[in-house]
């Protein structure tokens, strides 16, 4: 899915650069969000700055005023959050707890370690534009609601001189449902967005280390750029 998302992203950019947009015939718009993501307080499980999110969504436009300046845009989408852990850490599930593990205790050298959470989402946005059409300034506020359907951890490491990748699928006590507030501002087909969760990534007090539950506010937030098929 990641390769498919990136391929679609570059195709969309090429379409806009050459001024030929067959997507304009679709009733509605397709959006690709690329952003850097983190938790509100990751001190218990620190993340690398390269942690990121990518999402693809389709939203249909309902005009709310005769001028066409105010619209309501519901839709459906897919999102993948990639949380890169610092200090060679990863997580594993044991009973009802998610344990923080040190990968360097069983691998010679950890190169990268991350957790990926995949969501199917329903975005809902209210938008204002200076006028209907592509050449308009846009402002949007709304929310999106997601269901986590798959998650896994991945560790790229070196063992006995060979570089290998270890992958572990599981829930890891992630919340099945999530909600985020969303804001956008932009011009034409480029927008900047911010998404802030009103649910946490992990269930309450689920993440532990050798000393017990860790101090962790896993409320996610993402800041990035949106490309659309306007």
Automatic annotation (TrEMBL):
Record key words, sorted: Signal
Q: Which residues form the Outer membrane protein beta-barrel domain?
A: 54-193
Report the InterPro entries cross-referenced here. Beta-barrel_OMP_2
Give a Pfam family name: OMP_b-brl_2
Q: Which residues form the signal peptide?
A: 1-19
Top-rank taxon of the source lineage equals Bacteria
Q: What is this protein called?
A: Outer membrane protein beta-barrel domain-containing protein
Q: Which organism is it from?
A: Flammeovirga pacifica
